[in-house]
Amino acid sequence: GYGNGGYLTIPVRMVTRTSKRHNDWITLENPVRYLHGLNSLQSTKWRINRPIFELQTSMYHSGGGWLDVPMREPVQIPDRPDDVDDDEWKANQRALYQSNEEEAVKRLRWLSIEEMIDHLDDDFWLPHHIDFRGRAYPISGYLTHYSPDPIRALFEFSDEYVLDDPKWLYVHLANMAGIRLGSFETRASWTNANIDDVIESA
After folding, report:
1. Are strands 155-157 and 46-48 parallel, antiparallel or unpaired?
2. 123, 158 Cβ separation under 8 angstroms
3. CA angle at residue 134 from 113 to 147, to 5 degrees?
4. Could you give the CA distance from residue 29 to residue 101 in angstroms, rounded to a whole number?
5. Which of 14, 125, 151, 183 could cross-link 5 (Cys pair, CB 3.0–4.6 Å)?
6. What are phi and psi for residue 89, nearest 5 degrees?
7. DSSP per residue over 38-55, as a string?
8. What is the value of pTM for the model shown?
């Protein structure tokens, strides 16, 4: 039912942040159709893009701090120079402290992801749940295709398919290039006209 699911040993609600009225409505609506939707998402088989993971791991352990890979060590707070006034010095200090705190969060996330990947099989699946609005999200908080770009770059579909019609891939490429106006055909045509540049930059 809506009160459990996701894992075999850890209780996780199928629907998060619900009220009694919402739970009653879900029961009346028949949660089976929601389960079918979640199971469709959860049946997607993933694997880690190992060359990208090895590249990012190498970047992190060599210092990090670029291409959104976290810094391995915090920035050292320098001594105050004699020619800097109080306001400027305090502003610089605050910025450095804030940057170090943000990097510490990224660092912990990255180390957690490294450990997760070390324990993964070649193929894996992502259990999902839905929120009170009906939007589906992976239950895992770190290693998901909803994560920031460096983490999403680690994901690839385990089952490979040949696209008979690349139209929707072309539309997506145009969207990522900022070409979001116009019809789908217009965006697909834009990608087709710039395909050489796309391939060169890939």
Report:
1. antiparallel
2. yes
3. 20
4. 45
5. 14
6. -65, -45
7. HHHHHT--EEE-HHHHHH
8. 0.71
d(CA 25, CA 68) in angstroms, rounded, equals: 43
Residue type for position 171: V
Beta bridge partners of 137: 129
How many Å apart are CA 60 and CA 49, to the nearest integer?
A: 17
Tokens of 70: 């976290």
Which residue matches tokens 């291409």?
67
User: Could you list the pLDDT tens digit for every one of the 202 residues in the chain?
Assistant: 555 555 667 777 777 776 777 777 666 666 777 788 888 888 999 999 999 999 999 999 999 888 888 889 988 887 877 777 778 878 888 899 998 899 999 999 899 999 999 888 889 999 888 887 778 889 887 899 988 888 999 999 999 888 888 899 999 999 988 888 889 999 999 999 999 988 888 6
Q: What are phi and psi of 6, to 5 degrees?
A: 100, -60
